Structures are given as structure tokens and as C-alpha cells.
Structure prediction request, 362 residues.
Amino acid sequence: MARNRIISNLILLPLSKLYGLGVGMRNLMFKWHILKQRTFDVPVVVVGNLAVGGTGKTPHVEYIVDLLKFKYHIGVVSRGYKRKTKGFVLATRRSTPLDIGDEPYQIYQKFSRDISVAVCEDRCAGIEELLRIDPKINLIILDDAFQHRYVKPTVSIVLTDFNAPAFEDSLLPYGRLREPMSAIYRADMVVITKCPPRLKAIEYRICKNSLKLFPYQGLFFSSIEYAPLEPLFPDEAPRPPYLSWLTDADSILAVPGIANPKPFIRYLKSFHALVKVRQYPDHHNFTRRDLENILRRFNEMEGERKLLITTEKDAVRLLNNPYFPQELKEYAYYVPVKVKFDPHNIETFDEELQKLLIDSDK
Prediction:
């Protein structure tokens, strides 16, 4: 362990310093207007983070869409990470996760009646094309675009994980930060995500004092709530049981393919059933061999009742996977998630976001 730390300090720390110089120079070029930011005729809400990995961006984007969908005609633009297409792609009923990425696909599946969703590596071009296709759009939400500074945001929201806060991290590749902590001062709103259900007063103070935000920056705390199980294949699976019904005689095969599966696994293990885990990388595209291994692992488990349970994000890729074993479909479920904001803020997240959008129109 000590040897690895020495090697890390000798190699990764200097690389982290060089990376920081590059990021700092890029930010200065935007500050000095050498690199230009573009504004649009509609407000743009940017949701992003400082660190790589999962901070819960998609559930928070969904929360914002749900909050504003009846007040605005919303367009969501994402990069579409790990999609197999290039350039601008508009989400349609025929789209798959391979076309637009699993997270935009998930958002589209939930809100297709109310919003437009598109993916494009070049966010400026993506916004421009989406507005051309649907001129009624009067609000753009950019997913995972805090570092995409060519778009000037109307409201910038930065998320950081309570369990791995940015103020305790370092720049890549020594740590997980894409930008130094000073970049957080570009944000209008900062959300500490994945908080425990009941935060202690000292935990509020630690976060607030460590971030050292300006008075105009709102600080909010959110947690992830797990909803009852949903069948992955509704036509194949019986009515899903409540996890609280499971006993020591039941077994669960957990199949997460997300950046930080620990909360998901911890949630499943909080019930009585025996939990086995088959873990995969974030945004993993499940192969035929993967699914054969999952089927074999499932068949090896014992239990009066056996379930395969995955995450909501993985569900969209598994549902569209042609290799998913037919004999597993009646046992396959996923756990939907939603965001809940801490009620102890003097001004709520909803109020602050809507106030900033209203002020931008003046």
C-alpha cells in the first residue's frame, strides 16, 4: 500500500499538476474572451459536476424537467455518452440506447410527451439544431455540460456527491476532479447529492464551511429515494414483490453497471434476502457472454424466491438487448430512483431555480 502511494505521488501527482495548468489556461482563455461563449435567445440551464463518475446528474435533470415541464416547452441536450452514432441525433420512438446513449434514452422514455431530447457532441450546434427543429422550445437543459463552456448558461448547477465531495478530492489523474475547486464559483447553485436521509447539523456546517461559497450561490442538499420494484419485461414478469416481503430464504442477484453501485447494493442488502452481486462498469454494453454469465450465476443461486434486480439506468440497456435470456425475463426487475431535496433550506431548490429563470427574462 505504501509503495503504491509513493508511485502514485511520483507519477500521478506531477501529471495532475500539468493537467491543472492546462485546465487553468483554458479557463483563462474564456475569461479573456479568446475563446468565445455563445448565448441563445432562450434560457439555458446547465447541470454538471466537477468530478468524473456518478453524482446523480440524470435523476436531477429528470427532477428539473418534472418541475418545469408545464411552465416551459423544454429541450434537453446531452452528449450521449457511449452511443454508437455521431453528430446531432434527435430522440424518437425508434431510438435505442445505442443511438442516443442510455441516460438521454431514459429521460426521453419518461418525458417524451412533454419535451424534446437530442444528443450532440457540440452543444452549441445541438441547441441550434434543436431550436430549428422545434421553434416552440423556450428552455434548454444541458446535461453534463459544466465544462462545455462554449455555451453561456443562464443558470449553472453543480452537483457533488456527499460521500466523495469535491472539496476532499484532487485533479485528474491523481484524483477525480475535471477542474480545480475554484471552478465551483462559476455555479449559481450547488447541490450536495446522495445525502443520508437525516443529515446532522455538523454535516451541514462541514459542507458549507468547506465549500466557502459566495452569498449569491445557493447551497442545497438532496438524497436518492428508491421506489418499489418495476418489472424489466412487464409482459413476461408477474407483479413485482415489495422488497420488504423478502425473507432469509429468498435470493437476489444484483446487476449494477453504474459509476458508484455501493448505495444501490447497500439498499438491496438492507432487506432480508441473500444478495449476490454481478458488477459491471458504468454505461456497460452487455454482451452475449455477459448475459450468459448472469444466467449461469442466477441458476446457481438457491432460494425459495429468486430475483434479478438492476438499476434504472441499466434497465434501458438490458431491455433493448437482443441477448437477454428468455428464461430470465420473468425474474428481472429494476429499482426506479427519484431525487428528494432536504426541506431545511430557507429557500427551496424549486423556488431558487424558478427565481433565477424569471430574473433572466427581465
Notes: The mean pLDDT is 93. The first strand starts at residue 44 and ends at 49. Residues 2-31 form the longest helix (30 residues). Residues 155 and 204 are 24 Å apart (CA to CA).
